[in-house]
Write a structure and sequence with these properties.
13% helix; mainly beta; 141 residues; 7-stranded antiparallel sheet; two-stranded antiparallel sheet
C-alpha cells in the first residue's frame, strides 16, 4: 500500500506500479471522488510513501478519513518536499515525482510520475493490501 500526498491532502493508494524503465515512470491511480484527486489535478508533484508494516495508523488515517471533512496532514508529522509535496515523517521509504501526465482509467485517474527525489527502500516490505483491506473508506470508491 502507498500513501499519495500533494499539497493540501493525501490518500491511501491501492493501484500503483512502475510503468517504464527508460525513462523512469511510475503510475499512481487516485479515485476521482476524493479531495486528493481534486488537488492533484492542479499539482505539479506528488509524493508516494510505502506504508511501513508497523504504521497501520497512517493507512487508517489516509484511507479511512476523507479530506473533505478532516485535515489529515494536521494529524501527522511531515515536511515539504519538491514541489511542496508533503513527505510523511512516519514513512522512511518514499519518493516525489513530477506529474508528467494524467490518464482517465474509469473511476480512477492515473498520474504518471517522473521520480526526482526519494529515500529508503530498506528491509520493510510495507503494509500489504490484505493488511489494509478492513479499512472502511473515507469516501465512496
Amino acid at each position: 500500500m502507498f500513501i499519495a500526498t500533494v499539497p493540501g491532502d493525501g490518500c491511501l493508494v491501492g493501484f500503483a506500479t512502475q510503468c517504464s524503465i527508460d525513462p523512469q515512470r511510475f503510475l499512481a491511480c487516485l479515485s476521482d471522488k476524493n479531495r486528493t484527486y481534486r488537488l492533484a489535478r492542479d499539482a505539479t508533484h506528488m509524493a508516494l510513501h510505502v506504508v511501513p508494516e508497523d504504521r497501520p495508523d497512517l493507512a487508517e488515517l489516509f484511507g479511512g478519513e476523507t479530506g473533505d471533512e478532516v485535515d489529515k496532514l494536521s494529524r501527522c508529522e511531515w515536511e515539504p518536499g519538491p514541489g511542496d509535496a508533503p513527505v510523511l515523517a512516519g514513512c522512511p521509504s518514499w519518493f516525489v515525482g513530477q506529474i508528467v501526465d494524467r490518464v482517465p482509467l474509469g473511476d480512477h485517474v492515473g498520474f504518471v510520475l517522473e521520480p526526482i527525489d526519494g529515500a529508503g527502500a530498506g528491509d520493510d516490505p510495507g503494509l500489504g493490501f490484505q493488511d489494509a483491506r478492513e479499512i472502511e473508506s473515507g469516501h465512496e470508491a
